[in-house]
Amino acid sequence: MKKTVRKNVELGVLFGLICAIVLNFLHFEARCDELRQGVLRLHIIANSDDEADQKLKLEVRDEILKSSTDIFKNCNSTEDAIITASESIESINKIANKVINEKGFSYNARVSVEDRYFDTREYDDFTLPAGTYKSLVVDIGKAQGKNWWCVVFPCVCVPTAHDASLSDSVSNEAADTAENAKKYKVKFKTVELYEKIKKLFSKN
C-alpha cells in the first residue's frame, strides 16, 4: 500500500513537472510568435557567393535602406507596413535594378512580399526566433549566394531611424525576449527545434 502511494506521488510530481515545463515553453513560444507577427523583415539574397556579387548585394541593400524611412514613415502597424511594401514593390525593384545596372551586371533583381522561413538570427541589438515571417524579399540574379536580412518595420535597421525599437510593434515582454536573448538561449534552441519539426511535417 505504501509503495503504491509513494509511486502515485512520484508520478504526480513528475506529471506536474512536465506540465510546468510545457506551460513555460508555450508561454515563451507565444512571445516568439508575437515577434514573428510583429515585424516585417528585409531579406536580400545575392546572385552568388562570388566577392563581386556579395559586394553588389550590400550596395543594393544600402540604396533600399536609404528609401525605407520614407516608404514606411506613415506605417503605424505591421499590417500597414506589409500593405505599403506590397504597393512599393515596383519602386523598390527599380531602386535595386538601377544599382545593378550602374555597376555593370547583366542580371536583374526580383522583389516580392512573401512568407519566408528563417532559423534563429542574431542582429546587433536583438535576436529573432526561428519561424516563418512576412518578408520583403529581394532576389538578385540567381539568388544562390549568402543573404542579408534585417527588420524594416519597425525600422530598427534603417540608419536614419534611430528612435525605432521592437517595442513599437510588440509588447515589452516580447521585445525583451529579442533584446536579451542570452537569458533565453536554451529556449531559443528549443523553439528552433520545434519550428524545424513543424516545417518538416508541413512538407509531408
Mind explaining what this structure looks like?
The protein has 204 residues and is of the alpha+beta class. The chain has one domain. The chain contains six helices and six strands. Strands 2-5-1-6 form a four-stranded mixed β-sheet, with helices on both faces. It has a two-stranded antiparallel sheet with strand order 3-4. The chain is globular, with a radius of gyration of 21 Å. The relative contact order is 0.18. The mean pLDDT is 84.
Mean pLDDT: 84
Largest sheet: 4 strands, mixed
C-alpha-based Rg, rounded: 21 Å
Task: State the domain count.
Answer: 1
Contiguous uncertain segments of 5+ residues: none
Q: Counting H and I runs of at least 4 residues, what is the number of helices?
A: 6
Order of helices and strands: HEHHHEEEEEHH
- Oligomer designation: single chain
**Helicity level:** 40-55%
| Shape category | globular
The N- to C-terminal Cα distance equals 49 Å
| Secondary-structure content class | alpha+beta
Q: Which percent band covers the strand fraction?
A: 15-25%
The largest sheet has its strands arranged as 2-5-1-6
Number of strands: 6
